[in-house]
Amino acid sequence: MFPSAVRQFAARAYARLFPGPFAAAGVALALFLGVSLVSRVGLALFNGEAAEFLPWRIAGWLAIGTVYDLAAGAFWLLPFALAAWLWPARRLRRGLQAVFVAFGLVACAALALTLASEFVFWNEFSSRFNFIAVDYLIYTREVIGNIRESYPMTPIVLGLAALAAAMAWLTLRPLWRAGAPTTMTFGRRSVWMAGYALLAVTSFLVVPASWKEFSASTQSQQLAGNGVWEFFHAFNTNEIDYDRFYLTVPQEKANAVLREEFTDAGTPDFTNNPALPFERRVHGAGPEKKLNVVLVSVESLSAEYLGSFGNARGLTPNLDRLAAEGLLFTRLYATGTRTVRGLEALALSLPPTPGHSVVKRPNNENLHTIGEVFADKGYEPIYLYGGYGYFDNMEHFFGSNGYTFIDRSAIADKADIHYENIWGVADEDLFTLTLRELDKRHGAGRPFFAHVMTTSNHRPFTYPAGRIDIPPGTSADGAVKYTDWALGDFIERARARPWFDDTVFVIVADHCAAARGKTDLPLDRFHIPMLIYAPKHIQPARVETIASQIDVPPTILALLEFGYVSRFFGQDILTEGKKHQRAMMANYQTVGYYEDGLLVELRPQRRVRVVDVATGKEAAPSDRTRHYTDEAIGYYQGASDAFRRGALRRPARLVRANAAPVK
Predict the structure, then answer these.
(1) Does some domain include residue 2?
(2) I need a labelling partner for 60 at 20 to 30 A (CA). Which of 5, 44, 503, 577 fits?
(3) What is the CATH number of the domain that holds 576?
(4) Are 196 and 337 contained in the same domain?
């Protein structure tokens, strides 16, 4: 009796909310809500964390998740509502029914694809759709190719087809009935259409991203979101105005904080440039060393993979040997979770300001980079990449900032390629190209600074067979071990070159392999290795200083005793870093500052959270937390302001064409 009464009440409510032909919009909304619920519960099970199934957490991510589902569903139903509104009443017979069925088939296919994409994306990034998903719309060749090479496509396509067919079986009959003749006039239909449109507009304006942050658990927050809503939110907030969305202080105070940061770390020689108050002259401790530099940024190399950091699986024998023979930096942290963040830090020594990396932003030409400092010293800065340069805007960025850009297209002979996948050639082939280009520079009497970006340690984890004892395409461990093999082979081949003894090799990760954690910025998921190897010039040692990826450029230049005018936000790890240990990192919209056991998280809507890293709990407000919050704001507000005003551009007198690159 009771279930029957409930069904009758639900039917009456449904008919009132979606009268006449608008019943199709109700069917579309019900389908969307059902798939969203399945997605949410499925991701929770897939995530595998028992804490997410505590009753109060389940209630939180289900209740708040329903709000986001409704907000996204308000847009999802609009195509059906528009058809119901505009279709002439006298022609409502078969025509509108066919339209509703066609819309329904498209909707079922789209929802099946979205559901599968959510699981693939979560598996890779432990997150709902975000900036990365928006980027995937741009780089469809690499993304689709990566999926095809990483996953068994035939069963996936068949599974998607079966899922779409099941949804169609549930929805096509009620959609067909919704297209039956109606007595609703156009005026009445217009009133209902205006209501649905108002609901969509209201959900866009009223529902904020912060509602899902009901829990300190990052995974609970992600489960409470809705993939479709998150995607369009990320698209809409791709560029984030720091001053508008984040906590700020008067710009004079931010400038003073930055000057104090460098003063605390040493005795800086400020230039007193009013456009950039922390600009300073760096003086070498001795005569400049005209050594070549090869900086290798390694794809997705977490510190936890190396034996030097306690890994017992024997994945990195070459890196461990080089680490024992060179400088090993044991407490270095990446600035982000994507390659472009690593490139930004390693080229610009710039904190990871909210939104896209500067590598992908407009007005990123003629900036103060480590490459330009080398160019001023008579070096040729080179950027070498195993893929194609249009990806992530690499060619434009490096080419517009004084580097000679060389990518996959420079390998014309197929015999020089032992293996390639959608991301580029195998690391060993990239290193062969690198050796060829460096030999040319040495032969022409040109010192070089080469930044090499690898790709093999990336899904689908494929590489030439027979190099290591793990078959290609089977695991991330195999890709790590192959990359280690390729790096060891590269060093040994370089050792036979006449330029080897006068070259400094810097090997550093671009970011970690995964960012999964219980907080927005899990510190261990930003921990990366760096080693500097130059047996004729650098003595072996372990550097235990906490440092950031933005500190790598000043450290390299300090090792060469270079004097220059610095607009870098980083510091020399070996001198300044010992006095002032801190690190910066970001994950999409949250930017962080780590010092003295506290992690300051700056979030949109001017929110701040200070976490005690040892306990994982929020720290109580105190003079100490306020001090580090001011330092965090100083760095991020200062960096955002400097880039926005163009203050990081090189002075016009220094923006010049480098000496002709060696051909």
Answers:
(1) no
(2) 5
(3) 3.40.720.10
(4) no
> Containing domain of residue 375, as a range?
244-654
User: 333: which strand partners?
Assistant: 527, 548
Question: Can you tell me the distance from the alpha carbon of 346 to that of 256, in angstroms, rounded to the nearest whole number?
Answer: 25
The tokens of 241 are what?
């105005």
What is the 3 state secondary structure string of 340-396? HHHHHHHHHCCCCCCCCCHHHCCCCCCECCHHHHHHHCCCEEEEEECCCCCHHHHHH
Tell me: do 427 and 572 sit in the same domain: yes
Q: Rounded distance, CA 104 to CA 80, Å?
A: 9
| Banded pLDDT at 355 (limits 50, 70, 90) | confident
- C-beta separation of 87 from 21 below 8 A: yes
In-domain check, residue 4: no
CA distances from 75 to 7, 24, 68, 70, 205 (A): 26, 14, 12, 9, 13
Query: Under a CB-based contact definition with an 8 Å cutoff, are residues 602 and 590 in contact?
Result: yes
How large is the C-alpha radius of gyration of the chain? 28
pLDDT tens for each residue of 435-477: 999 999 999 999 999 999 999 988 888 889 999 999 998 989 9
Q: Count of domains in the chain? A: 2
Partners of 420 in the β-ladder: 425
Query: 263 and 210 in one domain?
Result: no
Distance (Å, rounded) from C-alpha 144 to C-alpha 126? 20
Residue 305 is inside which H or E element, if any? none
Asked if 625 and 619 touch (Cβ cutoff 8 Å), the reply is: yes
What does the DSSP assignment read for 47-58? HT-GGGGSHHHH
